[in-house]
Amino acid sequence: MSSIDNILNRLSNASNKEPVKLSLEDIEREARNVEVDLKREELESHRQDRAERKKFANKIFRMLGFFLFIVLIIVICCADKCIPFELSDTVIVTLLSTTTINVIGIFLVVVKYLFRAIK
């Protein structure tokens, strides 16, 4: 029987007139059990956070890879004169600039999320 069950049994068996007597040892044991349970919950929470961060990072990596692939295809199509696809130089420079800023920004957000300071 666990110490909680012992304490509950003592409480239920005690009459209303008689005060419940808990030993210091029972209280300390119960406090240690609560601490251990809290540490286990905290550990499980950290494991779950780590697993979710890995999934999130992989999805962001795939999205960025796809995004960069599409931009590469657009640039190749503009450079290849065999394909009838043409964009002005200003549009290409804007596309490459915003792509670079987006990649760096998303990378920084993901890195800050994955490696945030422990509080």
Number of strands: 0
Tally of individual domains: 1
Number of helices: 3
Overall morphology: rod-shaped
| Relative strand content | under 5%
The major pleated sheet works out as: none
Report the C-alpha radius of gyration, rounded.
31 Å
Spans where pLDDT lies below 50 across 5 or more residues: none
Spell out the helices and strands N to C: HHH
The SS-based structural class is: mainly alpha
Can you give the mean pLDDT? 82
Helix percent reads over 70%
Folded structure, characterized:
- The chain starts with a helix and ends in a 5-residue tail after the last helix.
- The chain is mainly alpha-helical.
- The protein is 78% helix and 0% strand.
- It is rod-shaped and about 90 Å long.
- Helix 2 (24-79) packs antiparallel against helix 3.
- It has one domain.
